[in-house]
């Protein structure tokens, strides 16, 4: 068995006496795309907060990324080590072009310097050109990001995340507010990233979950714990999951 790229072991998080996450165990393989679902308030965003260092777990739990214990690292360090996060609402630099949004997102200080001095090394330029094709914004590279449609902004933000060269991507509801065609295209994009990258995707749209989990596993969170984990069909037919989602 390959060793996991991410191990979350016995992690809890309490806010003012309220347990948002309770004794959570979660393992992600290198190159895996895992979909995380769960009702509102299940703890999905808190789970991302804990992995990305935005929030610290209660004493006792442990989060390991590769062979690094990141439990007590701060958000900036964790990002630099290779965990990138995309929030639900796209936040792009509206007044900059699509291409410059990618330049500004290059790993480390080189993005800001390249942008400031209007000079990019050819390796970065080629990589960003490929990235533009991948997110299907090649023909809009000179548009201001603020002019893009909502779905295109989401893709640009995934591109920005990739420009920063993360090993693990945490993606919160990428299909929110998208048309069916955009949603499907987003699924294809995420599936194409698996293998080279490891991904955890939080999502509500069950059609989309079915698409991106076609070869992978789904984890269901409920009241801060893992309720069930498995292939899409197994999860969908699980009695506990049906009770939580459908009240029966
Ligand atoms: P989800 O993303 O699955 O909808 P969240 O992780 O946002 O759920 O929230 C899980 C629970 O933890 C909720 O009851 C929420 O109110 C609580 N919670 C999350 N973050 C905080 C916080 N910073 N302070 C207090 N309570 C919080
Ligand atoms: Mg949430």
UniProtKB/TrEMBL annotation:
SUPFAM superfamilies: P-loop containing nucleoside triphosphate hydrolases. Keywords: ATP-binding, Nucleotide-binding, Transport. Residues 6-248 form the ABC transporter domain. GO terms for molecular function: ATP binding; ATP hydrolysis activity. It comes from the Bacteria. One of its GO terms (cellular component) is plasma membrane. Gene3D superfamilies: P-loop containing nucleotide triphosphate hydrolases (3.40.50.300). This is Urea ABC transporter ATP-binding protein UrtD.
């Amino acid at each position: 068995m390959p060793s996991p790229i991410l191990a979350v072991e016995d992690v809890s998080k309490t806010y003012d006496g309220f347990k948002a996450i309770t004794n959570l165990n979660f393992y992600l393989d290198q190159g895996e795309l895992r979909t995380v679902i769960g009702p509102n308030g299940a703890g999905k965003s808190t789970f991302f907060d804990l992995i990305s260092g935005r929030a610290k777990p209660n004493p006792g739990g442990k989060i390991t990324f590769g062979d690094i214990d990141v439990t007590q690292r701060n958000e900036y360090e964790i990002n630099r080590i290779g965990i990138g996060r995309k929030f639900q609402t796209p936040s792009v630099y509206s007044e900059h072009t699509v291409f410059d949004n990618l330049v500004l997102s290059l790993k480390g200080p080189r993005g800001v310097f390249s942008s400031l001095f209007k000079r990019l090394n050819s390796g970065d330029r080629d990589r960003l050109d490929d990235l533009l094709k991948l997110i299907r914004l090649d023909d809009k590279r000179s548009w201001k990001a603020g002019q893009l449609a909502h779905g295109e902004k989401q893709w640009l933000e995934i591109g920005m995340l990739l420009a920063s060269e993360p090993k693990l991507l945490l993606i919160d509801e990428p299909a929110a507010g998208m048309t069916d065609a955009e949603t499907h295209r987003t699924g294809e994009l995420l599936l194409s990233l698996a293998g080279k990258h490891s991904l955890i995707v939080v999502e509500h749209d069950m059609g989309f979950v079915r698409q991106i989990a076609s070869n992978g596993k789904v984890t269901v969170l409920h009241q801060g714990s893992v309720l069930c984990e498995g292939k899409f069909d197994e999860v969908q037919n699980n009695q506990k999951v049906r009770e939580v989602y459908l009240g029966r």
